[in-house]
Amino acid sequence: MKRFFTLTAATATLPGLALAHPGHETGQFMGGLSHPVGGADHLLAMVALGLLAAQIGGRALWTLPAAFVAAMIAGGLSGWAGLPFPGVEPMILASVVILGALVAMAMRPPMAVLLPGVAIFGFAHGWAHGAEGPAQGLIPYAVGFAAATMALHLLGIGIGRLLQRGALLRGIGGGTALAGLALMVAG
């Protein structure tokens, strides 16, 4: 019963975590560095991408994170410039669910399908970072959010390599997908 209440309390806080991205009001490098780890949606998606890259292995280990970060920077510039992106939040939440589900099901889509999807997700996350970023000091802010994103991808890769495609890795993917669904429902 105690676990139920703990889980319920944790789930109740998810909407606040998803929408509260503390730190970007500080501007510059630290604001960018804190943005990806300040919201559950960003944190979950970026770690899940690292898990997926580790699970697939081979060239996916570096191409998936690189595609995400490159597209994220382009999206960040678009968001910062004020270009519209209708549906950015649903796209970000979809990235959590889809990346988590791919890990949970140990799917290995062809890179020709996976890379554009990852780039779209990266662009959406970047757009949110850029749109919520500071009016001044874009470059240090962008370096900060790119560094934090790469660190989260590396964390996911490290966990994925440690678990070596086992049931626990798939369980983490499933939990990530469920957390994404909870964020969707709560939002």
Q: How would you sum up this structure, described in words?
A:
There is one protein chain. Helix content is 79%, strand content 0%. It contains eight helices and no strands. The protein is mainly α and 187 residues long. It has one domain.
Task: Give a concise summary.
The protein is mostly helical.
SSE blueprint and pairings:
Elements: H1 2-19, H2 28-34, H3 40-56, H4 60-80, H5 88-104, H6 111-131, H7 138-163, H8 167-186
Helix pairs in contact: 1-8, 2-7, 3-4, 3-5, 3-7, 3-8, 4-6, 4-7, 5-6, 5-8
Q: Number of domains in the coordinates?
A: 1
Whole-angstrom Rg: 16 Å
H-E order: HHHHHHHH
How many β-strand stretches?
A: 0
| H/I helix tally | 8
Classify the oligomer: single chain
Uncertain segments: 1-25
The residue-averaged pLDDT reads 86
